[in-house]
Amino acid sequence: MLVGLLSDTHDRLPAIRALLQYMQERGVGIVLHAGDYCAPFSLKPFIELNMPMVGVFGRNDGDREGIRAYAQQGMGIELFESPHSFELGGQRMLLVHDLVDASPRSLESHGVVVHGFSHREEMMIRGETLIVNPGEGCGWLHGEPGGAILDTDTKDVHFFKLKDVHRLEASTEP
Predict the structure, then answer these.
(1) What is the rounded (10 degree) CA torsion for 135, 38, 77, 58?
(2) Global confidence as pTM
(3) Could you report the per-residue pLDDT of 67-111, keeping only the tens digit for each?
(4) Among 21, 52, 73, 114, which is most exposed with the fewest C-beta within 10 angstroms?
(5) What is the CATH number of domain 2-165?
(6) Which residue ranges make up each domain of the chain?
């Protein structure tokens, strides 16, 4: 199963839309978002593209009730407090905004851990656990919006940047 990984999208609608379109074209059926949407309207591309999403809240998600209400406009968008544990594609997954919010024991008890917060892409293996930060979906700090695609069958991760896919349209940000 191909799963999209995003974090730290921080309201940048054109980037979010382009990242989701790239993922859809590659057969991604669901996105895991590790938080920091910021505003409710940041979920608009998920709804418009009919992309299911499981997400957790980050530190910059101030209007959580507004974000939850906006999410209810679409189908298949589920939001949880961080950390959130679940099964997907035959893997026990942990979705957390900042790794320090999950205990080492919790990290070890999952096959895949997806996190954000640092805005830097990274991938590491601790024992049997794959830990992935897809980087920043907004591109505000490091210049290029990006994400990742996880194959849950093989645990292979493909990182990508929008500069590689030539998708970010010149448009005004909200």
Answers:
(1) 60
(2) 0.93
(3) 999 999 988 999 999 999 999 999 999 999 999 999 999 999 999
(4) 73
(5) 3.60.21.10
(6) 2-165
